[in-house]
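Bug report

Summary: structure tokens for Transcriptional regulator, GntR family differ between web form and batch submission.
Environment: batch mode, default settings.
Steps: 1) Submit the sequence below via batch. 2) Compare with the web form result.

Sequence submitted:
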Amino acid sequence: MANKSSRSTIAAPALVELLGPLPDRVTSAWVSSHIMALVAEGRLRTGSILPSERSLAITLDVSRGTVTRAMEQLLEHDMLDSKRGSGHRVRLPKRAARPVESLDPHPTLASNDAIDLRWTVMPPHPLVQECATAVASGIGSITSLGASPAQGVPELIDAICQHYNRRGLPTSPEQVVVTNGVISGLHLSLIAATRPGALVGVENPTYPNIPRVVNTERRRITPLDVASGFPAALTAVLHSGTLDAAIITPDFHNPTGHVLSDAHRTNILRAAAVSRTPLIIDESLVTFNWRGKEMPPPMVSTDRDSAPTFLVGGTSKSLWAGLRVGWIRTSRRATDALANIRLGVDLGAPVIEQLMERNL
């Protein structure tokens, strides 16, 4: 594991260079927000000692009061340890992240005639009805749920293996666990990959329920801003070893629709392997390739010494929102851990829905 902290003192000119181009008017809010961004991106390591307020003020050409207020703001965000005579030491917040606004379980509409598009779904494809009828009529012939019901129905697991084999990623049944949808898959992967209080990198913006999943068990979020320099910034964060895990959507990112290039995927996987940072890959939108674009292969590390990569997929977005069955494709060792975790969560996904998805 890469070193997660550094106790060196950073000189004022070096810090100002990291902060980037200065605005016409440097404010305390600008200084504090940019220092927080440097920490989140892994470019300013935890444990680093910031330059003195006086030297930083001189280098920024601002009053010392501006820098003092910036340090106070960082202290308010729990980003500094400050002791008289020891300077300001960079740290990660100890308190849990504030819950992120997400889907409201009890939405209120302005009028009875309004349609809430957050909960509206398209009707299922006729094939869904046909599969439901066929599976229901054959329930009496089901005599086994497989050797490990917590892992999934063997017929569906075989279909998932074929899905990855077609995409160029050899997969055996021992590497697959069926879940109750993608969100459940992300949750189980986080439990397997991290401990309570872990620091998890999450794309910003992202699907609103992902932060809600991460915030369970006092996990903290480091936002990874999705912009033109996102792949390089993510690679730098992973190299720094500050994250305990990261959740990314390399294929048709929600909401930007961006697809990570093959080269960017390789760099990110290498950085994660160096720091042994588990990656949780949201593949829920991978089938949305309506323009027939040639897609990179699944984002999985081939380094045996790297931390596991969890590929989380599902069909609720591509087939029907009411068919909430997903899966996790990972290493065999991680699959065993996931199957054991399932026993304390939900025992397994509904068998009828699994068989329906197999036929679709």
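Above is the batch result. After comparison, the two runs are identical; trailing whitespace caused the diff. The first strand starts at residue 80 and ends at 83. The beta strands are 80-83, 87-90, 176-179, 199-204, 220-225, 245-248, 279-282, 309-314, 326-329.
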